[in-house]
Amino acid sequence: MLDPESTRQDDLRSGRSPWLAGPPRPASQGLDRDIRCDVVIVGGGITGALAAEHLTALGHDVVVVDREREGFGSTAASTAMLQWELDLPLRRLAALYGFEKAADVYRRSFQAVAGLRERVATLELGCAFLARDTVYLAAGEVGPRELQDEYELRRKAGLPGTLLPHAALLGAFGLDRAAAIVSPGSAEADPLCLCHALLGVATRRGARLIRDEAISFDATSRSAAVLLSGGRTIEAGHLVLATGYVMPDGVSSALHRVASSWAIATLPQPPSALWPGPALIWEASEDYVYCRTTTDGRIIIGGEDEETDDPERREAMGPAKIQALLGKLRALVPGAEPTLGHAWSGAFGQTVDGLPLIGAVPGFPRMLAAYGYGGNGITFSFLASRLIGAMIGGAEAPWFRHFALDRPNPARL
Fold first, then answer.
1. Could you tell me the CA-to-CA distances from 46 to 71, 75, 330, 381 in Å, in that order?
2. pLDDT, tens digit, for every residue of 316-335?
3. Nearest 5 degrees, angle CA 136-CA 302-CA 276?
4. Are residue 331 and residue 221 in the same domain, yes or no?
5. Which one of 90, 96, 179, 383 has the fewest beta carbons within 10 angstroms of its own beta carbon?
């Protein structure tokens, strides 16, 4: 099991992803004295970066603490398929919570991708952030009838999309599957570039990046504090935990678990090998495969998830997982050249209902957290930044409970 006290970035990911270029990281510093701020964020990955950008835009004095290089943990392992569709299909989420709540969650996820797209454009961040359709393929036990049911529920919820039968799908995308739902509104990006660009915006507004390890937390009704391994203390009005997939002591949820996923990127492909239109492709099965292209013509394909958070076991499974993904690429996109440019893996948090864990930490006033993103990492990171920003500002809304850390397990409802 991953230990919050000893976990390092190499435990959260293995191998090398293509996300190693982009804007330089803002300089971080150590502390030679205790400091105060409005909000201290623990974690400098994409979740912490989005929170820092948003909170500084709201006028807060922000400090971001990370014990290692910002963005080079789980963020660097992301495939950055910024989908609004959740790991749990709408029909299954509705079976757990009822249609109205499930539809509201889906609409908020759709709005999160749109909000992130608008923010990237406004800030002129670039970072290979591009709007994309998604192609949700029939797979396993999910055939045309089940996709038809999903499509009808999405229409009822006001969500966009088109149901393509086999012939239309084959003609439009060259994908030989029984059916698919094709939906607009998603996106892709270079996650490491995006993380560093957002941190750059935040620091230009006055945010401070501190390189140190947070070893203990405290939060009362009046203030919050973080004790660093260097002996210094950061006092703040609020504390935000954005520590990836490892929860510190005192933060837990019966809904949360940590798993591992693998991904590969091919060498650049000839244009004829790629599916028409650079859409994001994923399967309508529990252990789904997902793939996208990059701006230089590579195909990224990921999946092969395992219920393990052991870094050594994940490393040992790597060669077999790489071969399995290459085989699935051949089956899904027969015209592609199954070359290997990059291969990597990473730990990720998920929940039994497919929804993130965002909001107040029970028992710790003024401490907020964001965990359990599953396959919607950056989408839910953006949602978390807005929800946490609202809560710090004193706002409350009934829909915040959709994502609460202490929400009931749906199996017991």
1. 6, 6, 32, 7
2. 888 999 999 999 999 999 99
3. 50
4. no
5. 96
